């Protein structure tokens, strides 16, 4: 007798936690993902800024589920879902597989949104994947390397200007880390530039940083960012991005061009295109970010066998955070298990807000848990504690803690490797522009030591 | 008064140790390298097989030299040396720099040699750079992922066949690790394949593995490899390599085609092309591997101000190992310091062989130190100790030891991340072939669990 087949799309928080919650259910689980890893996205910025290794935030999904006998992990990208015949079609390297399901959990997440300006992506990568983080690592450290080679003051300033678009947690954390790198960590590693001349600019179209944290914490975060050397510019819309800079429109309608080699986009999200597929077949509605308006039990309208969880859903204005995905994945699993074991779950999905936090600087953070608002060191310590718990696996917890010791106490960055491929192949064209020309014709004075 | 300028080309063992040995010399040191890191090449295979992170074996060179006030590190690739005018010209991302030197230390190392068959490189990457290691990581783990998707027995066997060409230390260590991965580590992580069906084939044209270790240890290494599931095939020349396999010619003249998706080339080295530049201008001779026949004091004939160290030299049949480069770099530095401080070094370069070791399996290695020959656990323990000492930096030592604990005791691999770029962009075309076609038309049975 074959057991009911549960297919899960995605290995992020929603997909992984759903799979784990089905460990003891009388089903076979197949988790299909286009990446081999479960990505701990909230720490992606630490890979980009040289604190953590890729393995620490992205353990192999099949490793995590190794001991769960009813779970199979497949590396393939789902490109078709047929709700009528209950089949998912996925592909990898020209190999196509079809998976029949009795239950489907769609947890394919969201990508970066450039609000209709996808051409910006080339010059201002987002922060959604391991590829993004390594690309940004190459751009951040690579800009400093190129500045060290430059003899042209204007070019050097452009190479030393870092612009982060979007003042949500990702943008704030990136800005904080780049300021820490240039103001402190790397200060004595260069000879021909003073990395403290770097300008770290955090832009947002809204009037506050970290809006969901409330007025008090937002103000505290802004003050702490500025104290650490981040220039915060609010009410500023980005109207154009290219290889050598970007154009910003302020509230008063005035525009300004900012010369900057390294741009980072952390401004918006767009749900997986699988949302559109589901909507078209089920008649469900999509919001502007491509998220599906699901039923209160996270099912697709008209399809009680199809659950959608995490960043792909539009329900009760739930935010696109890890906890919504985790709790959604577990809820979907409990519904399936309940149905099969004769104990149906009748309650709607209820999200329990466990709070949010964002790191601003070394030993500084903001945290909001219910009515409790923390900032400074207490918030930072809470962040450390919570994140260590959520890093997957005991082994990763140990090496992550070590890398954090190295970074927070020792102020060093030990994971800074960029590949030639990233540095030369991509940085050259995308960051510096195709018209980038040699600026040093003469002979460098190699002994010009500043420190 | 400007101090004498020492330019060092390369951030490998030769270049880095030369720079460090000049810390107290009355000179300005400029180290120019085309990579941002000092690569600990002997552990590259551990990055490829998921044991170590890139940061652990490739710390940023400018970090290592941060406190050495007389040293400047520049990221640029040297493409011209003018011995007459004593100028080195380097380039990065279309930016050109020229460096005048009073002393030059050329430590640009060696790349992989395909003995005139450079087209093999696409299908069988070498093991010389971080890019190589990450590319191979994607190919090794990616082959297993694709095998898990495959429903075609012949294709699956091709995806499960790993061929390592060259039975020197790198080839032996790679073969041993892939066997460990497939025989033990990953066994329970897959559901549709049994990774123990994988075939790990170590090929060499010579008649023994690890020839420099002597007959007894070579035999011990071969036995240990075979005991761990590596098929060792000696006296076998590779005559062709393509996307889906390779052609091997045995001693008796017979040829055989072996179907294998993942091929690794660890068979030969070719000195940096800078050797040819130096030879053409100085009249020095090159050997077949492009190495320069230097004077007994490591200087270029006719140029007492130019030293060549490490893998680029041909002198007294010295091997291309880390210790030759380290000692050569230090010797060159002592010559320069001696000349400037009135205590000239007159002795020729004398290499002190500190021994060699190669890891064969978990807890198994061979080591030769002078007349002392060790194999099995004692050799492995010696390897552990020596390598921990040579891993650069206390912090890397701690995390490396932890990753080794995870791997050797826990039998896990925590650094397995491959980027989409590596997996899709490169694996597809280069490993599976452009004519790779979908082989699964029907519906996979997701519940087919083998273990």
First-residue to last-residue Cα separation of chain A: 74 Å
Name the poorly predicted regions of chain A: 425-451
Number of DSSP E strands of chain A:
24
At CATH level 3, the topology of the largest domain in chain A is: FAD/NAD(P)-binding domain
CATH class of the largest domain in chain A: Alpha Beta
Structural class of the secondary structure composition of chain A? alpha/beta
Provide a short characterization of the protein structure.
The structure is a homodimer of 451-residue chains. The first copy, chain A, has 451 residues and is of the alpha/beta class.
How would you describe what is shown here?
2 copies of one chain form a homodimer. In chain A, the strands form 7 sheets. The first copy, chain A, has a 6-stranded mixed beta sheet with strand order 3-2-1-7-19-18. A 4-stranded parallel beta sheet of chain A has the order 11-10-9-15. By secondary structure, chain A is of the alpha/beta class. Chain A contains 13 helices and 24 strands. Chain A is globular and about 75 Å long. In chain A, 33% of the residues lie in helices and 25% in strands. Chain A has 2 domains: 5-112 and 269-341, 3-Layer(bba) Sandwich (FAD/NAD(P)-binding domain), CATH 3.50.50; 118-267 and 419-431, 3-Layer(bba) Sandwich (FAD/NAD(P)-binding domain). Chains A and B meet through helix 3, strand 3, strand 5, strand 6 and helix 5 of A and helix 3, strand 3, strand 5, strand 6 and helix 5 of B.
């Amino acid at each position: 007798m074959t057991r009911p087949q549960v297919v899960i799309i995605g290995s992020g928080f929603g997909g992984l936690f759903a799979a784990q919650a089905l460990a003891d259910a009388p089903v076979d689980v197949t988790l299909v993902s286009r990446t081999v890893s479960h990505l701990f996205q909230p720490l992606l910025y630490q890979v980009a800024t040289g604190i953590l290794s890729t393995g620490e935030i992205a353990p192999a999904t099949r490793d995590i589920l190794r001991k769960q006998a009813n779970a199979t992990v497949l590396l393939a990208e789902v490109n078709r879902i047929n709700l009528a015949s209950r089949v998912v079609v996925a592909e990898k390297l020209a190999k196509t597989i079809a998976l029949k399901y009795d239950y489907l959990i769609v947890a394919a997440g969201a990508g970066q949104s450039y609000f209709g300006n996808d051409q910006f992506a080339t010059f201002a990568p987002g922060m959604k994947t391991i590829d993004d983080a390594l690309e940004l690592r190459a751009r951040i450290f690579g800009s400093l390397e190129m500045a060290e080679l430059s003899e042209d003051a204007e070019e050097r300033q452009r190479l030393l200007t870092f612009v982060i678009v979007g003042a949500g947690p990702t943008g704030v954390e990136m800005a904080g880390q780049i300021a820490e790198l240039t103001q402190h960590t790397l200060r004595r590693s260069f000879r021909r530039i003073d990395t403290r001349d770097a300008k770290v600019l955090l832009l947002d179209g809204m009037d506050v940083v970290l809006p969901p944290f409330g007025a008090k914490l937002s103000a505290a975060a802004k003050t702490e960012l500025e104290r650490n050397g981040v220039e915060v510019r609010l009410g500023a819309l980005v109207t154009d991005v290219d290889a050598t800079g970007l154009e910003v429109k302020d509230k008063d309608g005035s525009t300004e061009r900012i010369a900057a080699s390294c741009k980072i986009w952390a401004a918006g999200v767009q749900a997986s295109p699988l949302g559109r597929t589901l909507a078209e077949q089920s008649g469900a509605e999509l919001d502007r970010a491509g998220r599906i308006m699901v039923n209160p039990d996270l099912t697709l309208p008209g399809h009680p066998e199809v659950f959608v969880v995490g960043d792909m859903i539009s329900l009760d204005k739930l935010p696109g955070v890890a906890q919504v995905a985790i709790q959604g994945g577990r809820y979907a699993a409990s519904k399936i298990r309940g149905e099969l074991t004769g104990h149906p779950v009748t309650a709607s999905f209820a999200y329990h807000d466990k709070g949010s936090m964002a790191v601003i600087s070394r030993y500084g953070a903001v945290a909001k848990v219910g009515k409790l608002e923390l900032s400074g060191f207490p918030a930072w310590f809470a962040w450390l504690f919570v994140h260590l718990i959520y890093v997957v696996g005991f082994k990763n917890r140990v090496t992550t803690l070590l890398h954090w010791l190295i970074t927070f106490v020792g102020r060093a960055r030990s994971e800074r490797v960029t590949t030639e491929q990233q540095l030369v192949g991509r940085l050259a064209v995308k960051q510096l522009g195709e018209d980038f020309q040699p600026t040093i014709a003469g002979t460098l004075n190699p002994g010009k030591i500043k420190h």
